[in-house]
């Protein structure tokens, strides 16, 4: 009996990642569809429901990460229909607000209010990233003889997720530079660039670096495979520093200036080879059989 691509379960239906990208973006483009059990399929659909809607929204100044009207219209529709798991409200009503107050002296009160666009929960984002990576690794290791794919050994270790306006922070760029010369094992770009995925193999260990980009807006990076080589790299990555803005015995607020990434400096999804693949680059990799 066939098994679910996301784990040791029997499948009941086909699963694809279509809900993440804007409507119509897979027309005349490739798409990965895998067999998945109902539980895994439902989990993935639930994660993509609000993550898709939120990553399609404009930033705090109303700027979209793209200029495609069809995707902008889809973002507005999803903002009405999808519910944020952080706020338990519709995405359109889920702008983040922080209110702070204090006293400067006798009779002098002061207050601040910070407002931002709807936010995704990082743990949910990393879980969806794990499912996407699992699906592509399964495809990459699929055997037509056994009709099964493989799963990476050991664990999956997310490092960071960042919005477009912060793709240039020291940790994200440090990761990008550290792994950019590793052998590319998978490059998948689809839906007019609204979905990107890349995996690169460590030169001497059973460790892979990975990166995902959703809706031209959100990037996630990390490793899977052996933990020790990944930890050694993380130990040498730059640390992000936040400045304390407000602190009381019961609450505090820290801030960090976002750093955008210049297009000419962006190599996260570039393959340094004479012939860069335009469709998924599939290679043989080692993994546990499904």
Mean model confidence by pLDDT:
84
Task: Please give the alpha-carbon distance between the first and last residues.
Answer: 12 Å
Strand order of the largest sheet: 6-10-9-8-7
In total, the number of strands is: 13
What's the overall geometry? globular
- What characterizes the major β-sheet? 5 strands, antiparallel
Q: Evaluate the radius of gyration.
A: 21 Å
Helix-strand string: EEHHEEHEEHEEEEHEEE
Helix content: 10-25%
Described by its quaternary structure, the protein is: single chain
Kindly estimate the percentage of residues that lie in beta strands according to DSSP. Answer: 25-35%
Number of helices: 5
Global structural class: alpha+beta
Low-confidence stretches: 8-14, 274-290
List keywords for this structure.
290 residues; alpha+beta; 5-stranded antiparallel β-sheet; two-stranded antiparallel sheet; globular
